[in-house]
Design goal:
Blueprint (H helix, E strand, L loop, with lengths): L8 H9 L4 E3 L10 H14 L4 E3 L6 H14 L4 E5 L3 H9 L9 H10 L11 E5 L9
Parallel strand pairs: 1-2, 3-4
Helix pairs in contact: 2-3, 4-5
Bound molecules: adenosine-5'-diphosphate (ADP) and magnesium ion (MG).
């Protein structure tokens, strides 16, 4: 998954992927140290066990996605990016409406926005899907 905080990634995962994929997210371990390494290990273990996996984090930059693409390559499975391309203003409004730890600091959303580069097959993805609110993505 790729998308800002509040874009609707977890909702998309729940509605379209959770029935068929193991869901991994650093958000599941908010207090753990070395969450990145832990996530990478869990993904590798699930793939090695033959499971399909979806990684539900913001994953905004190619650098952050590279390890996941590599994990899929190592396991010999296809890898797809699903970019939930919700307008930042909508993400910010949804974030505002959240409670407690689910609400992230405004600066966090802006920082992710600054780092976000749309996923591309040039990174090694076999497929890139774009999810936009209220519309079917254009072909290609
Ligand atoms: N397609 C949608 N239309 C309207 N609201 C949505 C949609 N998808 C998600 N939401 C709402 O937006 C908020 C953030 O959604 P969530 O899936 O948790 O985003 P993310 O995982 O990207 O941070 C939630 O309150 C959710 O109910
Ligand atoms: Mg989420």
């Amino acid at each position: 998954m790729v998308g800002l905080q509040g874009a609707g990634k977890s909702t998309h995962v729940r509605e379209h992927l959770a029935a068929t994929h193991a869901v991994v997210s650093k958000d599941h371990w908010p207090r753990a140290r070395r969450r990145e390494a832990r996530q990478q290990r869990v993904v590798a273990e699930l793939l090695a066990a033959g499971r399909s996996v979806v990684v539900d984090n913001t994953n905004p930059s190619p650098a952050e996605r590279a390890a996941l693409v590599a994990a899929a390559r190592t396991a010999g499975v296809p890898v797809r990016a699903v970019w939930v391309d919700t307008p930042p203003a909508t993400c910010l409004a949804r974030n505002d409406a959240r409670e407690g730890r689910a609400r992230v600091p405004l600066v966090g959303v802006h920082a992710t926005r600054a780092r976000l580069l749309p996923p591309s097959t040039a990174e090694g993805f076999d497929r890139v899907d774009v999810v936009r609110p209220g519309g079917t993505p254009p072909a290609g």
